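Incident review: delayed structure delivery

Summary: a single-chain prediction request sat in the queue longer than the usual turnaround. Root cause was a stuck worker, restarted by the on-call engineer. No data loss occurred. The affected request and its eventual output are reproduced below so the record is complete for anyone auditing the incident later.

Affected input:
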Amino acid sequence: MNNKHIEIAKKLIEQSNNRIFTVISDSMSPLILKGDNIICNAVDIDKIKKYSLIAFHNDLHNKTVPTVHRVIKILKTTNGIALKTKGDLNSICDKTSVTRDSLIGVVSKITGDGKTISLDSCYGKTLSIFLYFISNFNNYFKFITSKLKILFMPEKEPDYKNNLQIIHQSILINTRDWTNTAKINIDLLKQFINKETEICDISFDGGYCEESFNFIRHGLKVDCNKISSFIPSDKKYDIVICSKVLNLAENKQKRQEIYGFIKQILKKDGYILLSYINKKNNFIVSLKRQIFSLSKIYNGPKKDDLIYNGFFVMKYLNGKNIKKELTDNDFLIEQRILSDNTVSLFLKLNLK
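Output delivered after worker restart:
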């Protein structure tokens, strides 16, 4: 074999270890932009260095769309090397670490829109790391600015435009809080439920909560009533499930409408399961709102209002006044359970 054939063989071997991908997101901008192509070389995970760009499968069950992010930490585990990664534009690290099984390779070249950057060259490596630290600084600056805005800038009051907005609010509530609470609520309800129990789930949108789905999966029948379009009937229920509802009411008057609705459909000896958010605001946030509320032009959230992603999750309601409000509306608290950031109440009608 002459030198020419040897060179061709080397190139073929080299190309067989290379893979080309087209980038479909801006998570690595400004170094890699959406639409750029990257050339990725297969390499052993032990040879990857910190700040390298790697391609990997984020989901081993779906290998159609690989992810390209930067290695920010190399971990030594009992199962071998694991790589902690992050997109330069992202403010947080990826949830899962890259292992030998999920690694595709290391990025060696970036091309697109008239540019070619070789990450094997001194210039390419320097530019890559420089842009990473610039992006990090920008992320920290945005983080600090957002915190200062929360602490010192007046807030606007989110609007209740329609029922769809209220549905969105229930979706935005911290999932972990409701999942843990649902487990407790299910255990609490089990002792009162059998095949003959008449159960009703009430909500703003007419959808079932997790507690109801649990009993449906076990073959029990659960009716669902939408508060806004309820048609009065003679049917009464042994148990009314009211989860992710009370804390989303727009005001005290709206909550009283919910209490009245429950009374219409509950049997005299029936029970109500009620859950609501029980978080506390940061002291500085509460103080800031209290100061701004002294101004007549301020229409934002009040001291005790809880906001999540721009939506109310509790308005004019907290643990201090809920007992009195329930008593005033003829409800008696049989049991109260505090779990993480939610409260579960098991109620009965207090008929005189």
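Verification: The chain has a mean pLDDT of 82.
Action items: add queue-age alerting; document worker restart procedure.
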